[in-house]
Structures are given as structure tokens and as C-alpha cells.
Amino acid sequence: MKFRILTVCSANVCRSPFIETLLSRALADSPTHFVVASAGENAADGQHACTVVAQDHGTSDAELIAHRATTLSTRAVEAADLVLAADRPSRAAVVRLQPTSHARAFTLREAAVLAEHAVGTERPTHDDPVDALLALVAEMSDLRGTVEMPRSTRHRVPRKPWRRVEVHGNDVPDAHKAVDPVSHAVVSRMIIENASTMASVLSTVVRSASDGTGPGQARYVLG
């Protein structure tokens, strides 16, 4: 079985392709077959990826050079077991397109906090790693509203007139915004930190299911 992850941002040229690249690389050696894809609710199909965010942190251009922007579709959302949106507007676009996705659609930063919390508590045991991952996603959804999310932060706009803008704690901001963008360095730092957390949690769940080392009695039963 495969576990499918869809990453989403507005144009599918900067944030979601970078999240896709990092997750794909981190999960490449997993015994479970992860399929990671990306799309954008306002994407211009075929557009090349922005490599600035990757260059800031030493990711080679080759990892993004083959990327071409893809418009978010109902089929892509329906196929995904987990949707990771860059920010709340992109997450809202996913749910508008496919309302039944609300329980498996999160922002990246929201998902990282919920997943880390879920994996640190008593969780279900499953023989099949994909079942364990699906149960994790369900648990993450159940935890909404019960776990403290990151607070909003203020970041400097990297052009005149110099000022600071507030970024919601659930969002990875868009460095390509026409008004009040933040720097690519801020964006890449947030993506790397939270994608790393997600990859670590997903790998832990797979490993626990594969070798039977997961917590004992399940408090959530899949399906």
C-alpha cells in the first residue's frame, strides 16, 4: 500500500515544491512507499519552480529543476491521505474544492505540532504501517482545538518602505506576495523546521508499526 501526501500553496512554484522535495528526500528510504506531490490553487500550469528558497539552505537546483507547476484538482485532493498546505488560505481552498478532505487537510505548521503531540501520546497499534499512518492523521484531526498552536510572529519586509508584518502561527508566508512579502530566508527556515518534524513523526509511526514497538493499548481505532 502507498501513503499519499499532497503539499499545496498558491502558485506551486516556491513553498509547496520545496516541502514536497524535503519530504520526498527524508522519506525515500522508508519501508512504506510514500508518494509526495504538490499543487497550487492559483497555479499557472507548467511554470518553473523558484529555487531561491532552496539555495538559501543548500538544496541543489537539480532537486527542483524538473518541477512544473500544477493546478490543484479535486482528483489530487481525493487521492491524498494527508494534505499539507503552506497557509490557511491554501488549506481553505483544498476544503472548498473537496469538503470531505477537512479532516486530513492541515497547514504544515499546524500538522507538525499536532503530529508531534499525537506521536508522544498513547496511540493505536497496527500491523500495517499505512493503517498506522491513517490513524495518526485521524488523531491529528481529533486533537484540533486541544493543542496550543504557535503564536503569531512579526517579520521584516525585505524592501522599502521598511516595516514588519505579522505572520499567523499556522502559516508559512508567501515570499512572492505583491504586498508585504517576507524574505525567502524566513520561508525556508519555517519549511525546513516543520517538514523535518513531519518526516520524523511519519518515520517513527512506520518504524513502530513495522517492528511492533508502538505504544500498547490503542485509544483510537481506525475505521
Automatic annotation (TrEMBL):
Q: Which SMART domains match?
A: LMWPc
| The Phosphotyrosine protein phosphatase I domain, residue ranges | 3-119
Q: Organism's domain of life?
A: Bacteria
Q: Name one Pfam family in it.
A: LMWPc
Q: What is this protein called?
A: Phosphotyrosine protein phosphatase I domain-containing protein
Q: What organism does this protein naturally occur in?
A: Mumia xiangluensis
